[in-house]
Amino acid sequence: MNRTSFKLSTLATAVALVSVMASCQNKDNKTATDTAVKTDVAATAVKANEPIVYVNSDSLLTKYQYFKDLKTKLDAKSKAAQTDLAAKTQAFQREVAQYQQTQNTLPADQRATTEQRLARKQQELQAYQQNAGAALQNEQGAEQEKLYNKIADYLKVYAKGKGYKMVLTYQKGNSAILFADPSLDVTSEVITGLNDGYKADKK
């Protein structure tokens, strides 16, 4: 059921759109020099005066507890909506089948009345499906915006505190960044800060 199925790919897109510019006070404008690194070399700590850093959006979405809780909640709502619609659809189909079995024994006026009633029920069922799908999409959009704002607001404060001019996002196979020095990866630190803030908000 396309309209009621919930997809979280747009949430990943929201994270991928996070690119925060922050003022860099009392910092020299230095260009980070790209250096070749082997894939098995562990990322070193980011220096406080690096002007640009990046966050791995894949790791962010899989380790940010707020996102995991959000996914669980919306998945449950989507499943409930699908179950409800399936039950209504099956009930309607049973009613149609019952009418088909007895229609030849009914007077013409009763057949016409029954068919009109079933036609209305079918329209109501279709409208219910569309409304349920729209409601899920609206909630998805609202939650997507909340997720984006939470990450963006945190990164604004984080970047300002660290003196970074820009925080980029990196996603393997879906990123404008072809190479990024692991020393510029602040994903773990950002995830820790986001999760700490989420725990504090829940208390």
From TrEMBL:
InterPro entries with a match to the protein in the record: Chaperone_Skp, Skp_dom_sf
Any coiled-coil regions, as ranges: 111-145
A GO CC term attached to the entry: cytosol
Highest taxon, organism lineage: Bacteria
Keyword Secreted included in the entry's annotation: no
Record-linked Pfam families: OmpH
Gene3D superfamilies: Skp domain (3.30.910.20)
GO BP, sorted A to Z: protein stabilization
Signal peptide: 1-24
GO molecular-function terms, A-Z: unfolded protein binding
PROSITE patterns: PROKAR_LIPOPROTEIN
The entry's keywords: Coiled coil, Signal
Family, per entry: Belongs to the Skp family.
Name of the protein in its database record: Contig57, whole genome shotgun sequence
Species: Pedobacter lusitanus
